[in-house]
Amino acid sequence: xxxxxxxxxxxxxxxxxxxxxxxxxxxxxxxxxxxxxxxxxxxxxxxxxxxxxxxxxxxxxxxxxxxxxxxxxxxxxxxxxxxxxxxxxxxxxxxxxxxxxxxxxxxxxxxxxxxxxxxxxxxxxxxxxxxxxxxxxxxxxxxxxxxxxxxxxxxxxxxxxxxxxxxxxxxxxxxxxxxxxxxxxxxxxxxxxxxxxxxxxxxxxxxxxxxxxxxxxxxxxxxxxxxxxxxxxxxxxxxxxxxxxxxxxxxxxxxxxxxxxxxxxxxxxxxxxxxxxxxxxxxx
Length: 284
Prior knowledge:
single chain; alpha/beta; Rossmann fold; 8-stranded mixed β-sheet; two-stranded antiparallel ribbon
């Protein structure tokens, strides 16, 4: 079971980034989880608990605009401030478990964030490896160009303006793994204009191999995974990343967007076990 703590004090009155800790004595690795749009770190309890059992400590946080953290719902922006939040998470992992290699693992929007951080994060030299799951690079339902132009304009006029994210529980994974997503009070279906534009623009650069790289994570292993049954983030985006990045790329037949939560005939246990094996086989 996780413990909550204040990871970072925000500038807003009473505002904070809330951290989650699944402690482990003398862990072999520390996994830092970065969640997706509209959800929160507590939804990874099943994944983190299994990683705990495998000998890993786990840390995460509710991204700004999500869960118990501060900010308008869906406003995980501006990107430079979100990168600074990831700095705090990684620094926390290194402080709590100085002997354990850090693994940075992101899903969906969190995958976009981790891919971005791997290229330009201030502490991107710290993680020993990266895991990216169903990243937001391209969407299955592409945004029409005129609509995207309008959202981009709106992001300059009113960056906090919220629009529907379009995420549905039925598209995420096996019903027994996803849980009561629709009734969870910490789940929302919003994304702000600036968060959307930054995600799309960074995703497009990642797909072309055009995002500036500070070299801090050069040579670090990356596991990239995507389910063929994903109805949210297009698997084509991951294929493009795999074509321009040195990584191990795994496709999971039939699994939905949250591959760790499976699909129609899977609870996603095989994905969690794959991550555990992959981390355990790292030579760091």
